[in-house]
Amino acid sequence: MIRKFFKWAFSPMGRIAVAIAILSLFSLAAYGLYQTQQAPEQPIQFTHKLHVGLGIQCLYCHPGALRGPSPGLPTISKCWGCHQQIAKTQTSALLKPMVEAMDKGVGFTWVPVAQVPDFVHFTHRPHVAAGLNCENCHGDMTQVTIAVNPQVMNMGWCLSCHKERAAGDKEKLTKLTDCGTCHY
Amino acid sequence: MSEKITRRNFLKLTTAGAATAAIMTGCGPSSRYVTREPYVKMPEYTYNGLSTYYATTCRECAAGCGIIVRTMQGRAIKVEGNPQNPINLGKTCARGQATLHGLYNPDRVENPVRQGRSAPQLSTAQVSWDEAIQTVSDALSKTNASEVAFLMGTAPDHLFDLVSDLTDAIGAPAPLRFSALSMFEARATLSKAAEDLLGQAGLPFFDISNADVVVSFGANFLETWLSPVAYTRSYAKMRRSRPRTRGYMVHFETQMSQTAAKADEWIPLLPGTEGLVALALGKLVAQLRGISAPRAFASVNVQQVVETSGVSMEQLTRVAELIAESHAPIAIPGGQALGQSNGLAAAEAILALNALVDNFGQPGGVSLSPLAPNAGAHHRPANAQEMSDLVAKMKSGKIKVLFIHGVNPLFELPQSFGFAEALHATPTVISFATFPDETALASDYIFPDHHGLESWGYQRSQTGVMQSVLSGSQPVVAPNYNTRATADVFIEAARLAGGKFVQALPFADEVEFIQSKIENLIARTDGSFIAPEINAFSAYFQQHGGWWASSAESDSLSAANALGKSLNVSSAAAPIGENEFFFLPFVSPTLGEAGANKPWLQELPDPTTTVMWNTWVAMNPNTAHELGIENDDVVRIVSEAGSVEAPVYKYPAIHPNAVAMPFGQGHTAYGRFAAGRGANPTDVLAPSFNEAGDLAFAGMKVRIEKTGKQQPLSRLESRIGVYGEGMYEEK
Amino acid sequence: MQMTVDLNRVGAKGAIAEAAEGKWGMSIDRDLCTGCQACVAACAMENNISFVGEEDAGYGRTQHWIRIERFWEGAYPNVKIAGGYQPMMCQQCGHAPCEPVCPVFATPHSDAEQLNLQVYNRCIGTRYCANNCPYQARSFNWRDYHTMPERGNMVNGKLVFPLHNQFNPDVTVRRRGVMEKCTFCIQRIHKAQDKAKSEGREVMDGEFAPACAQACPADAITFGRIDHKDSLVSQRSNEGRGVKHLEDLNTLPRVTYLKEG
Predict the structure, then answer these.
(1) Could you read off the pLDDT of B108-124 as tens digits, one per residue?
(2) Is the CB of residue C130 less than 8 Å away from at least one CB of chain B?
(3) What is the pLDDT of residues B667-714, one digit of tens each?
(4) CB atoms within 10 A of CB B168
(5) In CATH, what number is assigned to the domain containing residue B97?
(6) C41–B601: do the CB atoms touch at under 8 Å?
(7) Quick one: which of B58, B89, B662, B604 has its CA closest to C39?
(8) In this structure, is residue B352 part of a structural domain?
């Protein structure tokens, strides 16, 4: 069976087939990786640029970052608090899902952009307390509409910053590079 | 390149390539598309990523422990004890912890249904709640009041109060409450004995924590007995809270229970001789203390007790010496001692032993449990006799409508009572079961109540603390399914029926009813909080998880009454013949009466045998050897009333003439984790009662037959099967 | 004896770990333990531990992170449970036998918290660690128990698992092929430390407890800092009844058992 396969693989058609297989494998893998770094399709093309530009603080909509692990998504009634006073809300096609959700009381789903796997227990509070600003990790939101990840959020990225921040302080370094700090 | 690549082949190959690539990259991008749905409107007290904690009351048994449930975004995550509640002071038992597996059980009654007695399947004939309420209303108003019966569980109390108000007003018989726990604890017997000797019916309070010698007669207070968390704490205090004094514990029981294993001395005796042993101890203690034996103890012949009970003279004398020399001895009557034909006399003998050492109302002694804040009198659940009477009434067609809530008599009552036939003879049976249990499936309708964690309510303390406690419940999560509070169903049905019905329940809803029942506490200043009016009071009631008297009560009891009574205890242990055994059913310490549908309770090993997920027959290894029975051999236990089959577990700590079997398994319904698993020991129990009307369940005579079958029990203690070792090691 | 420990060198090999006195520790009073299994249930609920069902339980595949052991002594009628019930869980050894055998370093020693860790995403399921654990404290995920189809309900053609609603979001839900064990409820440790830090103080003794200690009706389990001499757990561990199990293996267990009597 295997011999037959090799024989076939070295035949002209086989060579091309193997080449195609390898190529498509790599291209799909590359595409997958590329996809993880792209802004996903969202129910509303929310423009961070506009909202931040209006001077709204990050923590106004994502207050959880100050208190605990998750910054949270704003409730639709929070959006409504401002938007009901804006005439365009009722006419804009873009905002239709929000108006409908408010009317029916049924929400819609967002696709989180910056997230870590469930074996990582990231919590925002200590990071904010350590003096990090939102844009340090999430990029400059005055420049984007849908949020995108400015960098690959993997362990190397976490650790390089942890190491940098703990420079010189051995106790701090121990704590910040301990597996159990994030994985449990 | 002699071969041409056809377009067809090319497509084939690319498809295969793409498929491989998708597999190789682990479907990376798609796994990222987790979606998150924010609330449209954030519920009160909810914060993103932070937990909210709600105080409520555990409903896994009637003890009324306060719990605090950690919730997150509307999901209940973890049960913790309420540190303020005097009953459990922040602690929980395993059943309380696993209550979440009831809440999120995959087998719940999700909609009101016309069940049509179509056991074993849960009917899919959904009805609307309007129809359901109309059905209940018709059943109430179009039936002669004397032909309506209410059968309820021992929790929750607020619903019992509501139904009692309703039956009082319409002239229907008072609701009966029943649970297998109260049957196996012989609560009616204990209550009657307390009435006779302490002057008040109800469950006495045993102050184990301040005792220095505890003599327990089969009272398994570390497992399920009365208020297990409170008494476990008392036990811990008895052992270790006092400098230089470590309480000593003696336990008389035919088999070593989980509680008996914690005693310093476990003394096996024949079932039914506990009362005699108590009397003999009393006589000996009186002699040792140099007082003339009071009337209660005068007539007992110690030598005869030694012969019938199987307790040696040496042991009796040693225990008597311990009691005589102790400053604060206490004797506790347990279910196995009272669930006998001589149970009431035994209970009185054991309580009289307390009177003899003069511990009534003393620290480390026996007291009357204080009444719960909004109770008029101590409540006693129905005894087996009353259940048997109900069954007889149902069979004779005197009951036209039966309402069932919070109890599963088809499982909890022995089969020999004939509840199945009685249900058959009852024209309308309406169940309010949360889970599809046996009785619910044999009903005409199931109008499911919320789970306890989705419900309002309250539960009274009965024993375990000397404080008067009313534990409050509130919903910790929104109802998961299309269920409705049974109290609300009755209130709305009464409104539909009008007249005396709505006069009995003139409330907008359950919450208003509860407020009307706790309103009288506003005036009291001796409680855990003070509030000026009912809304503030209710808010505090929810926040604290109930209301309780801030200090312990004390009472003064006279021992004279107890000692002056002439106690005539005969042995209930009739001689047994060849291949006859005393049969001892006991409530499984991990499952309790209704834990079988909670998978993590099933996976908790029994503390003494380490068996999980099944029923076993505990048999002395020597007896097993004589009978040629090995571990995991299935035996049939046969009595005059019926038979039951289960595998044998060779248990080193049981009287050779007795076999024991846990109660809790053997369901034919009750969800996927319970149904078809294990066996129910009540199948062999005959309807015989003691003087207080409790079932004489302990020490019934049974025969044992081999079946030739084998069924390996899953045990924590051995690693059966993995590499073949330990498989039938004793052979 | 006070030795300075180079925290950077206290690693998975545990070579110097024995010099460290440990940080978190537990004392278990066997005189008080009533074997009631409340700790086992509380642990399961807190840590998303899967139940395995009757058949797998019979094969010894239960996932209890804490279990109650009992050993018989004597013969009827003088039979008793020797020394009382004994809760057994990961002893968080200072010199842990499980740590050096992991080929992929999924069982490192936490230098910061002085605990034995299990890193689920690194674990490849060789089970060497469980093989080497003298306390039999580790359990392996033989299947994806949580998502077994028979545990779910079909709703509109989709399999839903009502039991998943109970999952604690602070603890990873483990998949098949991964080793797991008691963590001393490290999520609670982190939470308490985080809270204390945000309030500018140290974690107080008794401020929090692992799920088992919190539930225990007899208060047999005490948890806290064993490097603080005035903590309750240090006092209880040192009151004279303390025993450490299999100490002769030089595992430096952080759990002290208090004898009966």
Answers:
(1) 999 999 999 988 899 99
(2) no
(3) 999 999 999 999 999 999 999 999 999 999 998 899 999 999 999 999
(4) 11
(5) 2.20.25.90
(6) yes
(7) B604
(8) yes
**Which of the four pLDDT bands, split at 50, 70 and 90, describes residue C4?**
low
Nearest to B615 by CA among B670, B677, B703, B658: B677
Same domain, B210 and B329: yes
The DSSP code sequence of B572-610 is ------TTEEEEEEEE-TTTTTT-TT-HHHHTSPPTTT-
Burial degree of C221 (CB within 10 A; 0-12, 13-18, 19+)? buried
Which residues of chain B are within 8 Å of residue C162 when distances are taken between CB atoms?
A: 104-106, 108, 480
Q: Which residues contact A10 (CB under 8 A, 6 or more apart)?
A: none
For residue B310, being part of any structural domain is answered with yes
Strand-by-strand arrangement of the B176-177 sheet = B113-114, B445-446, B428-431, B401-405, B148-152, B176-177
Q: Note whether B438 and B327 are same-domain residues.
A: no
C217 to chain A, closest Cα gap in Å: 27
If asked whether residues B288 and B344 sit together in one domain, one would say yes
- Chain B residue numbers with beta carbons less than 8 Å from the beta carbon of C60 are 718-722
Per-residue pLDDT, averaged over B137-153, amounts to 94
DSSP B270-301: -TT-HHHHHHHHHHHHHHHHT-PPPHHHHT--
A29 and B24 in contact by Cβ < 8 A? yes
Query: Residue B375: pLDDT band by 50, 70, 90 thresholds?
Result: confident
Minimal-distance CA residue of chain A relative to B4: A13
Interface of A with B in 78-137 (CB under 8 A): 78, 101-102, 105-112, 115
Q: Contact B145/B171 with Cβ under 8 angstroms?
A: yes
Same domain, B351 and B420: no
The percentage of residues in chain C with a pLDDT greater than 70, rounded to a whole number, is: 92
Q: Which domain holds residue B595?
A: 580-715
Q: In what order do the strands lie in the sheet with B457-460?
A: B457-460, B469-473, B546-548
Per residue, what are the HEC states of B609-629?
Answer: CCEECCCCEEECHHHHHHHCC
- By C-alpha distance, the chain A residue nearest B42 is A75
Which pLDDT belongs to residue B663?
96
The predicted-structure confidence for B430-450, as pLDDT tens digits, reads as follows 999 999 999 999 999 999 999
Give a yes or no: residue B542 inside a domain: no
Tell if the CB–CB gap between B240 and C32 is shorter than 8 Å: yes
CB distance B198 to B557 below 8 Å: yes
- The fold of C17-258 is Alpha-Beta Plaits (3.30.70)
C163 in contact with chain A, both atoms CB, cutoff 8 A: no
Distance CA C62, CA C145 (A): 11
C contacts of A179 (beta carbons < 8 Å): 108, 110, 117, 119
User: Count of H helices and E strands in chain C?
Assistant: 6, 14
| Chain C residues touching residue A66 (CB < 8 angstroms) | none
Residue predicted with more confidence, B523 or B45: B523
Instruction: Provide the token pair at B54.
Output: 């709600």
Considering the domain boundaries, does residue B196 fall inside one?
yes
Domain ranges of chain C: 17-258
Give the pLDDT confidence score for residue C53 in this predicted structure.
94
CB contact under 8 A, B97 and C38: yes
On whether any CB of chain A is under 8 Å from the CB of C41, the answer is no
Q: Is the pLDDT of residue B722 over 70?
A: no
What is the tally of structural domains in chain B? 4
Give CA–CA dist C208/B68, Å, rounded: 15
Examine the domain organization and report whether B684 and B643 are in the same domain: yes
Which chain C residue has the Cα nearest residue B70? Answer: C168
How large is the average pLDDT for residues C65-81?
Answer: 92
Length of chain A: 184
Q: Kind of pairing, strands B469-473 and B546-548?
A: antiparallel
Which residue ranges make up each domain of chain A? 2-36, 48-147, 154-184
Asked whether residue B730 carries a pLDDT value surpassing 60, the answer given is no
| Confidence at B9, pLDDT banded by 50, 70, 90 | low
